[in-house]
Amino acid sequence: MNLRSAFVLLMALPAMAFAEEMPCVLGPYKMLSVNRVAFDCARTLRSISGTATIRAIKSDGTVGNVVADGPLTLIQDANWFTVTLATPIAAGADFEITLQGTANNQAFDASKIKVSTKPDATISVPIRQNPSSFRYGRELWLSASVEVQFPPQLDLLSEDAPGVFVPHRAEVFAERSEVQQTGTARLTFKEHDAPKQLNSRMKIDGLKNVLGQDVRIKLNKRLAPASSPKDKDSSTYYAKLLHQAGMNSKPAFILDGKAAPVFPIASLRDIQLRPSATSDIGQGGAIGKTKTNDLIQFSFGIGRFVRTEHLGIVQGVDPTAGFTYETNYELAHKNALLTSEAQWLVAGTYEPLKEKNFVNYVKQRNCDGDFLRAHSVPCDKSLQPQDAVQANFGYELHFYTGIETGSQISVETGKASSGSSKVNIPKYSIARLYPKVSIALDLTHRFALTMSGTGRYLFATENVYREHDVLSTTGGDPTKQVYLTTVSGFRPSGEVGLAFALDDAGHYALSSAVKVGSLPPNFVRVATVQTGLTVKF
Amino acid sequence: MTPTARTIAILNRWCGQADAVDRTSEPLKELWARTKDHHSAVPFFDSLQKAQGAEQLVDALVQEFRKEPARKINFDLTNLNPSGGTILLVDDLFVAIRQSPPDDETEAKAWLSPEAHDALVSDIVARLTPVIRESIAANPQKAGKDGGSE
Question: Which one, of A228, A237, A227, A242, lies nearest residue A533 by Cα?
């Protein structure tokens, strides 16, 4: 060290001795324009002065030369400060900013922070979102670090089925009363048009930021951890299929399926058209000798979700009324029904794994001290939902009530499963009432235990047919003979199932279900176990 | 005052201590405990029945944001529950206030902060200046006529 260097060091010593760490926890930042960036100090900031120097970060991660610099300025009314750059910085790049100067009248050491001008945005539910409520999806918040030029309306595309992005139109409200609101906007959807699967991937087309870039929702950022409907009742599309064929044997199959898409009519105050097709049948081979459910229904209904949060425990009612054609595999019943079913959404009955995982995600990202200590995890502001602490137990309960009234529209013939025996089934009236409960328990993210029970009561006597074995007088195999009988009164049915998910979200699963009781239209009492591959969305 | 500045003022009054809010990543529960010598020291949120601290805060926010420029506070006491709630930090409260809609959203749409206004103006100037310069350079005679300098 020469004499001159020693002198410079000596002169700098007082300043170095008193310099402290910057009194800010630098984290969130906002790019207000091409040459102005705002930073959140996250501590009380009464004054700040100094300079910011910006260097580009190269593709190999090394820091390059200075590309711009500018002075630090305090924003009144907030703990934020801005840097106004002499030259605009490039879009779509990463930078390292070095801050030096004085804050709260105290010189601070050089602090570094990385910023990006890439056009990434995130979508989130409102922070007040209560995980056990049914308010999900109607209000979402878009947030980006770079200011966005928001239009009054925006189409958000959510991947409602694999590879299928469905547009949902949002009203946009972008308030700019303070710098923290830069790049953020509230997206409000109509009741019928809210994204149904918040764990899906999302896209936005045609939205630009102030750097002229197309804003994109980072594809690896999900709004909520991946999940799927747990049972047939809560699925839009559901199929459980088993098939077996062999020499000298009839092919056997089981099809337990449902397709119930929803078509909203915007001009009719959120009313939805709700067609559906449901089957729960099994025929052929060994299945032919075992009694199984035997129901096929085609329905066309209209419905509208009604919020009733103001009434207390029942937060919403979702009624559907319409027409149903009901038959069985042999087409031995042809029932025309006026049907009405209502789902009752009750507070505190919806705590599935995905909700718990989402709360864990929010708490870890927000550095909740109790949560971090309890789970021995670090605070992580850049945490993604799928990387959050996973819960191991969740539950959801669904309550329904329904009415089915109508009649068999023609005289039909019931035939034996083998042989020529048959019987005429006269027309009859139908008047049924039922409550239905379905419960789904998440046991880790791989296993789900589902239970459902329907307590159907038949006010009118309905004609049904049964078959029994008649021993041959010539000593051969017994033959099947059918006969007419009636059913009325209480005819319950239930199902308990266990599913093992094959994918993270649980759309594909190996499942086994025990089915007991009797279902319309023929009300055969069954006690059967069905195992197969289930696909549900 | 901005919504965040009003929220900080409310928090300081709630704690009974000027400049109580120093670190915005601090949990509200810890802020309440840290300043217990300056307020009633009632429980912040032990249970729904023992949540006087959180209740006082929500009440104070509702009262404050009834004044102009007003906002409809759209969260409640249960959101502040340290176990299960989602508004846990001072920062969370800022977000919750910003997500509570202004009473008159139409008016708010046209309301820019001084910083945002300055940024907008400088952005427009930065974008238009080269265009105007190019235009003048391309046709100085017309520019002179339009500018009325002849």
Answer: A242
Judged by average pLDDT, the poorest of A258-267, B77-86, B111-120 is B111-120
Please indicate whether, in this complex, the C-beta atoms of B115 and A79 are within 8 angstroms of each other: no
Q: Which long-range contacts (CB under 8 A, 24 or more apart) does B9-13 make?
A: B9/B64, B10/B57, B10/B60, B10/B61, B10/B64, B11/B57, B11/B90, B11/B93, B13/B60
Contact A39, A24 (CB under 8 A): yes
Q: Are the CB atoms for A499 and A534 separated by under 8 Å? A: yes
Interface test with B, best of A37, A366, A379 (most B CBs within 10 A): A366
A464 closest CA partner among A521, A407, A526, A527 = A521
Count of pairs with CB atoms under 8 A, one residue in A, one in B: 124
pLDDT at A392: 87
CA-CA-CA-CA torsion for A90, A92, A97, A102, nearest 10 degrees?
80
Cβ-defined contact of A126 to B99 (cutoff 8 Å): yes
Is residue A458 within a helix (H) or strand (E), and if so which, with residue range? strand A447-470
- pLDDT above 80 for A78: no
Q: Which residue of B has its CA nearest to A32?
A: B119
Tokens in use for A427? Answer: 């027309």
How many Å lie between the alpha carbon of B116 and the closest alpha carbon of chain A?
7
C-alpha to C-alpha distance for A77 and B2, rounded to whole angstroms: 6
CB A483 within 8 A of CB A435: no
Judging contacts by C-beta atoms under 8 Å, the chain A residues touching residue B69 are: 177
pLDDT grade, residue A315 (50/70/90)?
A: confident
B98 vs A75, A147, A181: nearest CB = A181
CA distance A304 to A308: 13
User: Average pLDDT over chain B, rounded to whole?
Assistant: 83
Q: Distance (Å, rounded) from C-alpha B53 to C-alpha B50?
A: 8
Q: Measured between CB atoms, which of A32, A176, A367 is closest to B111?
A: A176
ipTM, interface predicted TM-score of the complex: 0.76
Query: Which of B2, B109, B126 has its CB closest to that of A77?
Result: B2
Cβ atoms of A261 and A196 closer than 8 Å: no
The Cα A433–Cα A230 span in angstroms is 25
CA atoms within 13 A on the CB side of A59: 1
Q: Which two tokens stand for residue A238?
A: 């559901």
Q: Do A127 and B84 touch (CB under 8 A)?
A: no
Give residue A359's pLDDT band: very low, low, confident or very high (50, 70, 90).
confident
Cβ contacts of residue A414 below 8 Å, gap of 6+? A330, A332, A422, A423, A424, A425, A465, A482, A484
Peptide bond connecting A521 to the previous residue in cis, omega within 30 degrees of 0:
yes
Q: Identify which of A75, A82, A127 has the shortest CB distance to residue B87.
A: A127
How far is Cα B54 from Cα B51, in angstroms, rounded to an integer?
6
- Which residues lie across from A52 on neighbouring strands? A70, A99
Kindly list the residues from chain B whose CB atom is less than 8 angstroms away from the CB atom of residue A22.
none
**Which has the higher per-residue pLDDT, A28 or A343?**
A343
What is the value of pTM for the model shown?
A: 0.59
Cα–Cα distance for residue pair A494/A402, rounded to 1 Å: 16
Residue A328 CA from chain centroid, whole number: 34
Q: Domains in chain A and their CATH numbers? A: 16-116 (2.60.40.1220), 120-217 (no CATH), 237-350+394-536 (2.40.160.40)
Q: What is residue A119's three-state secondary structure? A: coil
